[in-house]
Amino acid sequence: MEIAHLEPVSGLAWSVFRGGREEVMRALGCEHADAIRAFRTLPGGTWEAQVRRADGVAERLDAVIASTKRLLPVESQELAWIAEGAGIPERDMWARNLRGDLGRDGTGCSDLALTTDSGVLMGHNEDGDGELHDEIRLVTLDIEGDPAITAVWYPGMLPSNAFVTTTAGLAFGMDHVPVVTANTEGAGRHFVARHAQRRHSGEAARAALSEVPCAGGFAFDVADAAGRADLIENAAGRTAHTSGAYRHTNHLRLIDGTSDGLAVPADDEWLQESRNRLGVLRGCGSPATAAEVFAALRTPGVLGRSADIWTFVTAVVDTAADEILLAGSGSPWRGRWSAFARGERVPL
User: What CATH number is given to the structural domain containing 172?
Assistant: First the structure.
């Protein structure tokens, strides 16, 4: 088992874990136990609110936990090991990680992707509650038998729900898609994401995102070093897919959920916020380089700077140039994408 702490990137602390699955996941929880516990016990914080909410829908929570364990036992066990390492009750970890799988919850994140003659440009803004803007960090998990991944990580989450790159030549962005009624026969969306990110090819990852139903909703963006960009909406057991160039924020664009009550009402305030943000992103023209994609995602009106929506990280991958651009709380950083996924800090 190896643990390393690299020099921060754009203000983001970076920890690297290499070894077997159980020891890596326990070490992830143990190494960051202080940060996980501090967030769990923050008075009036979002994690505390999510535990109270989960307690109020205990039957639904139990059903989604059981379904997730049945459909994705490896990823479910990973969460249990993180909880044990951090000394946090496992049920509290489930309440946190199923925040988008128990009914309407929040907003945040923007994605932009396009294909070029030689590859894919994909950019992601990771947005969330402003209270966390000092807590987001990078972790690399190099687990025996899996591709190594480097993930933008929220302490207490399964590393999977934000922006992820892997040594299988894949990059993922996840956009929260709110659904009114969860599919209690589906799996927690973080676990579906983690399952796909452990695949050894883009084909296998896309299949995982399409075949395993989410209890709640995510729009999954997948950039493949082979030159393919895909957007897969997976919401409450329904999926839809498109490839090529696209922009996405936090509402269903491929799935029509109006007839069956899947989509949130038209007068939902966060639905309007998401549509407004998408409108600004569309108004940024047709970016053709990694720097232009980065600039579009940092445009006022796309970039979040409020207590409700704070952009923690902007990340852009250029698969043809093997380049990643990353901005956290510090100056933007430009590095080698393939090395970044391995847990190596190689600037360009």
Answer: 3.60.60.10
